[in-house]
UniProtKB/TrEMBL annotation:
Family to which the UniProt record says this protein belongs: Belongs to the binding-protein-dependent transport system permease family.
Name of the protein in question: Carbohydrate ABC transporter permease
Residue ranges of the TM segments: 12-30, 72-96, 103-126, 132-153, 178-200, 235-256
InterPro entries listed in its UniProt record: MetI-like, MetI-like_sf
Domain ABC transmembrane type-1: 68-256
Major subcellular site: membrane
Organism per entry: Nocardia amamiensis
Length: 270
């Protein structure tokens, strides 16, 4: 019994240490943003006296609310589009049988292995012809199909009880009705976890928005670049904007935390 308790205590200590190591950079980000401008390079673990001058300097330099709104629009629309496409594609791959099904599935998932830099130029040329350069829709459009999302949802749907689908078909429901009234309600934890993954990925994207957008119609990640110059970096305002960039993601995680835990628990159950 003593050995088991020691193992349990050791596991908790290890988890606590790992959590502290993961959370410390986020704490230091907020701590730096709350220091006085003259103390921004201080190594003191506690920002005292607390000052919001860095946030005021950041608001004077860039349109913080506009950047947050643009970034949220891009991330939310991209995540929602990827979820919808992945839901329809994974339902077809998991619930239907058609010629060359496995080959098509492998080819579809294989696109995940293609680096984005390979498809960047064709996407840029297409957006130029469509007149969508320097627009938020132009940032979202090439990201609407995610092979990773299809792969994850297809694995969940493959373990979905086929008896429920068959019973719904006997009741006279269409495939569209079965998807939204039978399958989706039972996949809420997986969809919530995947939504957060897709949202964070789109929220943190820098390279593609830098190619499509100009500074006048920008997102948070490009706005941070405004505080970097040849004469030096303005760390205080930069940390202030970076801390604001973290808040929507943290809030989204807190709201959907229960669904994320359920997704991990159910992923090992059939």
């Amino acid at each position: 019994m003593t050995i088991d308790r020691l193992r349990t205590a050791g596991s908790h200590v290890l988890l606590a240490a790992t959590a502290i190591l993961c959370a410390f950079p986020i704490y230091w980000l907020f701590a730096t943003s709350l220091r006085r401008p003259e103390d921004v390079t201080s190594l003191s673990p506690v920002p005292w006296p607390i000052s919001f001058a860095n946030y005021g300097d950041a608001a004077d330099k860039v349109d913080v609310l506009g950047l947050i709104g643009n970034t949220f629009f891009v991330a939310a629309l991209s995540a929602a589009g990827q979820l919808l496409v992945a839901l329809l594609a994974s339902y077809a791959f998991a619930m239907y049988t058609f010629p060359f099904q496995r080959l098509l599935y492998l080819a579809f998932v294989g696109t995940w292995l293609v680096p984005f830099q390979v498809t960047m130029l064709p996407n840029y040329v297409l957006l130029t012809k469509l007149g969508l350069l320097n627009s938020l829709i132009g940032v979202v459009l090439p990201t609407l199909c995610s092979a990773l999302a299809v792969l994850l949802l297809r694995q969940h749907m493959a373990g979905f009880p086929k008896e429920l689908v068959a019973a719904a078909k006997i009741d006279g429901r269409s495939s569209w009705s079965i998807l939204w009234t039978v399958v989706v309600p039972n996949l809420r934890p997986a969809l919530a976890a995947l939504a957060i993954l897709l949202f964070i990925n789109a929220w943190n994207e820098y390279f593609w928005p830098a190619v499509v957008l100009r500074q006048s119609n920008s997102v948070l990640q490009l706005g941070l670049r405004s505080f970097m110059g040849t004469e030096g970096d303005h760390w205080g305002p930069m940390m202030a904007v970076a801390s604001l960039a973290c808040l929507p993601v943290l809030l989204m995680y807190l709201l959907l935390q229960r669904h994320i835990v359920n997704a991990f628990v159910r992923s090992g159950l059939k």
